[in-house]
Amino acid sequence: MSKLADKLLDYLTTTDAHKIGLMYLILSIINFVLAGVAAMYMRYTIAATPPATAVSDPFNDQLYTWFMSLHGLAMLLLFATQALVGLANVLVPKLIGAPDLYWPRINALSFWMQIPFTVFLWSSLFFWQDGDSIGWTLYPPLSTRSPSLGVDLILIGIVIGGLSTTLTGINFILTITRLRRPDIKMLDMSLFAWSVLASSMLMVMALPPLSVGAVMLLLERHLGLPFFDVTPGNPAASGDPRLFQHIFWFFGHPEVYILVLPAMGLVSEVIQRMARRRAYGYTAIAVSSVAIAAISFAVWMHHMFTAVQDYAPRIAMALTTMAVAIPSGVKVFNWVATLYGGRISLRAPMLFMLTFLLFFIVGGVTGVFFPVVTLDLHLQDTYFVLGHFHYIVNAIAFGALGALLYYFPHLTGRWYNERLAVLSWGLITVGGFMAYTLMSAAGILGSPRRYAAVPTPDVYPYHVGMTIFTIILAAGLVIYFANLLYSLFNGRPVENRADPWGSSKYGLPDVIPPVVKPHHEPNPWPFILGVGMIPLGLGALSLLKEVSPKLANYSFLSGPHIGLAAVGTFIALGVAWFVLDQVKTARMLRLMNGAAHFEIPKPPSLWGDLKVSISWVILSEIAFFGSFISSVYYARVVLYEGWNAALHHVPELITPLSLAMSFALWSSSFTAMMARRSLLKGRRGGFFGWLAATMALGIFFAAAQFFAEYPELFAHGFTPGSSIIASYFFTIVTLHGFHVIIGLVFWGLVGVLVALGYWNEKRPDGVEAAEYYWHFVDAVWVVLFLTFYLGAVNMIAPAPTAI
Fold this sequence. Notes:
- This protein has 25 helices and no strands.
- It is mainly alpha-helical.
- Helix 6 runs antiparallel to helix 7 (191-223), helix 7 packs antiparallel against helix 8 and helix 7 crosses helix 20.
- The protein is globular, with a radius of gyration of 27 Å.
- GO terms for molecular function: cytochrome-c oxidase activity; heme binding; oxidoreductase activity.
């Protein structure tokens, strides 16, 4: 029992990427099982309700739509993301000779934040009877009007999960670019590492818009801010539901590539090893990953061809959607060329990877129909879309399952049962291919999506067939995981765990030893802060209960006192982490010349990477604020008359107070620069003087905004929910104000570390990073001042047609 407790404590406090990766994989399997149960319920509901006897059953209909919503969200945001991030944690450091991930503690925090995401998402099912589900795409007005607390739990979980995945993306980018072994050139780097690098760039840019959409939905649900819903008879306080579609799909389509790119990388790694030759067109495969990532941001609107009436964006998005097939085709060509002439070993991992090619090609061919606008208008809301999408998602699953088999002997030191692995492959392949082919066929015949019963008898046999083959697929998955579980304890021992497949003799090592030996100190704080987001989320809902009728009936949300206590406790824990952990680490490392700012000692050539780190953080913040600010200009163009009506009720924003606030904040950029220069010259007194001036100016800005400007605007009737202009103004300006506070906290922490001697004139990275972030906050205020205070957005002309 003591050994078990020690093992549990080890995993709860670990910062080792290998162990964190294993926990990601276990959590992903749990979510996969839950999402699979939801899928089986949906298939059973449809197959058990013949068209001739179909009646409107509110119980089945409402519960069906909740399972449908959670199945889609869990498969994409939980299972697939967690599985691929888990494999990346385990494999990327080994494939590039890195001692660990760049931010070990943040990596642990990112994982533990997935626990609240998982808990909130699945606990929403307990409230299915309180209101309609919102679909996995979260579209308003369902998502804005549903009274169910389950909707709020999903949205809060998405915000937490989005932050977790964004931090993960930055972590992998820094690991691959800064911790790669010095003798490994970028173009000679592992193809899986290349794919993770491209996918991580998408995480940094695509996840913030999803969080923005979730925040806007929460604000509209509980504070009545009119972003998406229409208020009859009041155009000045009406939003546009299509705006959320733009926001969601700007995330949603890159999300597909966030998942498929790592799967492609795994396919590249396993195919070349099982074919016993280096991948053909190695550089082309690597560069095509980046090309796919870049193009993926220019295709989101093809999901909206029925909502967008202007042919110009339709044609543009159709062309870019077709263009993304080019780098994907490059990969397929090179994979096939790698197989040609190779000595192929048709073991189970290779079978899974070859089936990835089959499903990916068929999924790609069925996807060719959607950029053709006239075809998309007929197919977009049918089962043909589900067939196409499940081909692609199942291909991703084949990549992950095949890689897990290939690396199983590395991870465990034991072999899996080959016959059971081949049997599971056969069942998954036949079950999946037939189920998705029947989906496509039913879609061609017009079978609509999201129905809990088949509306016409001609497609009912297809749905029965889908259910049967889904059961076969599920049986294959049960055998697959049972095989791994049994082999974990009883499998045949591996003779050479470092190279069980004998691939290193072909110049393809699975493990590249790092230059620096990894060192992991147990740390409980990531677990405490990560899991602590569960009471934090419930505390936020308790605060909203005071102003939201939708939360009035939930007695376990105890009100503002509990909410404030939860938020205050979380902040106190964050302060405790810094004082008890980071300050301690700084004291230990301050005399170590060239030491890293985290627990892994790194070569001096890699010292000073915090400036690079904060640059990626700022890039994600640009995506965050960019989503909000672009929404303002979208609303001005599309809701032109309503915006003009709202303009009549906007008070004068240019006042002596607003000018003084702005001057103070912009002046603080100069004082921040002088603080950094003083430190570089070794003038600690000058540094602390300029730091005090910077913080004083920032405090004046935030205090004047929240305690002087806002009350004055409220007195004029300009309140957050009063009009569409007010909703955007208060939301974005307030978020900027919180970022000012974050910047002040950042400066305060840096000041403490300078006082401890950790940051100094020879190691100024923390001060430079704080300065970078402060300049970014000031720059955002320039954009907001131009947009709202000087009224640049009001000068925009109306759209010639609806977009």
